[in-house]
Design brief:
The chain is 20% helix and 10% strand. The chain has helices at residues 11-17, 19-36, 72-77, 101-104, 127-130, 161-169, 182-185, 219-222, 260-263, 268-272, 280-286; strands at 97-98, 147-148, 154-155, 192-193, 236-237, 299-300, 314-315, 323-325, 333-340, 343-349, 355-357, 360-361. 24% of the residues are buried. The longest helix is centred in the first third of the chain and has 18 residues, at 19-36. It contains eleven helices and twelve strands. β11 (355-357) and β12 form a beta hairpin. Among the domains are: 195-308, no CATH class; 309-365, no CATH class. The strands form four sheets. Strands 7, 8, 9, 10, 11 and 12 form a six-stranded antiparallel sheet that branches. A two-stranded antiparallel ribbon has the order 1-5. A two-stranded antiparallel sheet has the order 2-3. It is an alpha+beta fold. It is elongated and about 85 Å long. The structure holds heme C (7 copies).
């Protein structure tokens, strides 16, 4: 049937029913469907040509994953190494500071429950602890994992990266004595903390660049690959402990690179211009103290401003005090004795209750 185009008929309905238009819509619908339901990376034949059989072989043995190589990591390195066709994770594991996957991944047991409740199980990290290759997607390397929020609360699906870390870095029964329960550092009941698990406490953080006091940050903003052009993730770094940027934690001269980690989010000029603490420059530049002598990079249980003095440098003063009091913003009073570069700096109140450092009153403090 041929229809005369009636001039009274509006243009749009005609265009909508045209076969070319419908074809285009169908094409777009299929395309968006294909994109939003993109197959997980490793189940997509353009990435893994051989499909399941690139990683699995045989007809099945009860209780095994029938993997084509012994131990998950060798399987992964078929592609994720210098000679493979995917991002080179192997080389990351040869750096100074790593998740010691090469040495400990054989202790991973399929189906294990984390955090570990058996104190005798060997402590480990394997690729399979942090990735689910059947589910992960581009830029969603942690998709399909279970996590832990601390305090007995498990999550079936990871929402924040710290939930992955807490699987091993919180109250695991097999955690060695030298590594701490990181969930205590970030607990909402602490006096201060970097905003990883909860929003930060302090509305006045003038040094922040790109971020604001209401921003949240991640463990992997600080812990990860030192090489920004290499594969992302906390696999290996030349800076201990697995830091993305350099951070000198012992006393020494200030430079942009010595505190690069902090300066990646906090403007160096703001810190050294004393926008918050009125004696930042005096301590950092003139007395050559690292941020780490005063600040904890995670959180502080009892003090505001992440103040947690370095026990190798800070001792009780002659009155037996080690404390931090910040009644006046920017001009806090510290009661302590600081042993630094061969000298002692005694901070205390004198008999007239004036605030002094080595018996000299601190002006306008
Ligand atoms: C990139 C490698 C890789 C590919 C491709 C892959 N798998 Fe797996 N598969 C694994 C690994 C690794 C495990 C063991 C996971 C663990 O131990 O936690 C596993 C475990 C399994 C298991 C055991 C149960 C489970 O979920 O842990 C089954 C079943 C399975 N895979 C089926 C498949 C099928 C079917 C395909 C193809 C559609 C496939 N796999 C593709 C790596 C792969
Ligand atoms: C047959 C090759 C092959 C094997 C084997 C393989 N991968 Fe991959 N993987 C890829 C490709 C290709 C990509 C996408 C490009 C890239 O990241 O290099 C990828 C990406 C990833 C990503 C990034 C997130 C994503 O899903 O895109 C993770 C995480 C990952 N692989 C983990 C693993 C782990 C863990 C194993 C071992 C259990 C493994 N892969 C084994 C080929 C492989
Ligand atoms: C499957 C367990 C596991 C998971 C998950 C895990 N780690 Fe670890 N991590 C370890 C082990 C084991 C060590 C070695 C020290 C120890 O036993 O505590 C370690 C050490 C570290 C170190 C110290 C490295 C050094 O050179 O001293 C950092 C930093 C670290 N992990 C950060 C993280 C972060 C961030 C996450 C989450 C993205 C994470 N870890 C997730 C097991 C894990
Ligand atoms: C990934 C970004 C990032 C990095 C890296 C970073 N910070 Fe922060 N920091 C923040 C954010 C966001 C806040 C704001 C939190 C708030 O408002 O309480 C903050 C707040 C602070 C505060 C004020 C906290 C309070 O409660 O008063 C101090 C002190 C601090 N950072 C010190 C450091 C030091 C020292 C380093 C280096 C070891 C560092 N930061 C590295 C993002 C970062
Ligand atoms: C603002 C940067 C920053 C953030 C965010 C951060 N870390 Fe750290 N982390 C550091 C620095 C610096 C050190 C080394 C100094 C120290 O021990 O305080 C460290 C030390 C560690 C260590 C080794 C020392 C120990 O006590 O065992 C582990 C493990 C660790 N962090 C895990 C985590 C986890 C898990 C998260 C997230 C819940 C996290 N970190 C968030 C900067 C950060
Ligand atoms: C302790 C946990 C942990 C372990 C163990 C681990 N990864 Fe990762 N990996 C991560 C995290 C977290 C990311 C995501 C980083 C991001 O998105 O910034 C990641 C990212 C990746 C990526 C994507 C890199 C990119 O540039 O996008 C690949 C590929 C990968 N991991 C492979 C592996 C392989 C292979 C192993 C074992 C040799 C392994 N991972 C072991 C935590 C881990
Ligand atoms: C002598 C101890 C000391 C040293 C060293 C020190 N700080 Fe502070 N910092 C403080 C005190 C005290 C405050 C809180 C002042 C107030 O609000 O009353 C503070 C506040 C901050 C704040 C929050 C407010 C703001 O400026 O945005 C940041 C961020 C910060 N310091 C970063 C650093 C960095 C980075 C370094 C190393 C380069 C460093 N600090 C070295 C004592 C110190």
């Amino acid at each position: 049937m041929k229809r005369d185009p009636s001039p009274a008929m509006p243009e749009r309905p005609r265009a909508l029913t045209s076969p070319v238009f419908l074809g285009a819509v169908l094409f777009l619908l299929l395309l968006t469907a294909a994109v939003s339901h993109a197959a997980p990376t490793h189940l997509n034949r353009t990435n893994v040509k051989g499909g399941c059989s690139e990683c699995h072989k045989g007809h099945g043995k009860k209780g095994t994953s029938m993997l084509a190589a012994s131990g998950g990591k060798e399987l992964c390195f078929r592609c994720h190494s210098q000679f493979g066709r995917a991002s080179d994770i192997y080389s990351q594991l040869l750096k100074l500071s790593t998740h010691r996957i090469l040495e400990t991944s054989m202790y991973h047991v399929k189906g294990e429950q984390l955090p570990e409740t058996d104190g005798f199980k060997p402590r480990h990290a394997s690729c399979d602890d942090c990735h689910n290759v059947h589910v992960s997607e581009k830029n969603e390397g942690l998709k399909g994992l279970r996590g832990y929020r601390g305090g007995g609360l498990k999550s079936r699906k990871i929402e924040y990266d710290y939930e992955l870390c807490y699987n091993c870095h919180s109250d695991s029964a097999n955690r060695p004595s030298q590594s701490t329960d990181i969930s205590l550092d970030f607990a909402a009941s602490n006096a201060s903390f970097h905003p990883v698990v909860s929003f930060g406490r302090n509305a006045f953080v003038p040094s922040l660049r790109k971020l604001s006091p209401s921003s949240m940050i991640k463990c992997i903003d600080c812990h990860g690959n030192d090489d920004p052009s290499g594969p992302k993730g906390p696999h290996g770094s030349i800076y201990k402990p697995l830091l993305k940027y350099r951070y000198v934690q012992t006393p020494g001269p200030e430079s942009p690179s010595s505190y690069d980690l902090c300066y990646s989010c906090h403007e160096r000029s703001s810190i050294l211009d004393d926008e918050s603490f009125k004696a930042h420059k005096a301590h950092i530049v003139f007395n050559r103290i690292s941020c780490a002598q005063c600040h904890d990079s995670h959180g502080s249980r009892f003090n505001s401003s992440l103040i947690n003095f370095d026990v190798n440098t800070v001792f009780p003063n002659s009155l037996g005090q080690v404390s931090f009091q910040n009644a006046v913003r920017g001009k806090p009073r510290c009661y302590l004795s600081c042993h630094l570069n061969g000298r002692i700096y005694e901070h205390k109140l004198d008999q007239k209750l004036a605030y002094t450092v080595n018996s000299k009153t601190v002006p306008q403090w």
